[in-house]
Amino acid sequence: MKQRTPVSAIMTKEVITLNNTDSLETAERLFKSKKIRHIPVVSGESIIGMLSYTDILRISFADSVTADGDYVDTSVYNLFTIEQVMAKNLISISSHTTIKETAEILAEKEFHAIPVVDNSKLVGIVTTTDLITYLLDQY
């Protein structure tokens, strides 16, 4: 296992984002259609938060469906904005941060995704799944 491999080697580079003005219903559709669990929230080019699928589940029954497979009423989403639900105190890393340093941050904190930011611009996202996949590839 390489000791100094940068996180850019394993991060997702084509990041799906939400705008702070998007609806929570839009967020739910993205989570389900893209099969992802974390979406950075941006205002212009600046990252201002991170929304997780768990954040959505806390305020709704987002994964509930009717017997026909249709989605349930999502009117609860009208009660909240993305900014009210997202995590705001983010830790970000640069694309040069090592995988080991990234793993240490994720092991210490209580979140499962970190935005990768270079020169104030979002360039990627790395998740615990990315780290596990990297480790499995080493064996």
Automatic annotation (TrEMBL):
<keyword id="KW-0129">CBS domain</keyword>
<feature type="domain" description="CBS">
    <location>
        <begin position="11"/>
        <end position="69"/>
    </location>
</feature>
<feature type="domain" description="CBS">
    <location>
        <begin position="86"/>
        <end position="139"/>
    </location>
</feature>
<dbReference type="InterPro" id="IPR000644">
    <property type="entry name" value="CBS_dom"/>
</dbReference>
<dbReference type="InterPro" id="IPR051257">
    <property type="entry name" value="Diverse_CBS-Domain"/>
</dbReference>
<dbReference type="Pfam" id="PF00571">
    <property type="entry name" value="CBS"/>
</dbReference>
<protein>
    <submittedName>
        <fullName>CBS domain-containing protein</fullName>
    </submittedName>
</protein>
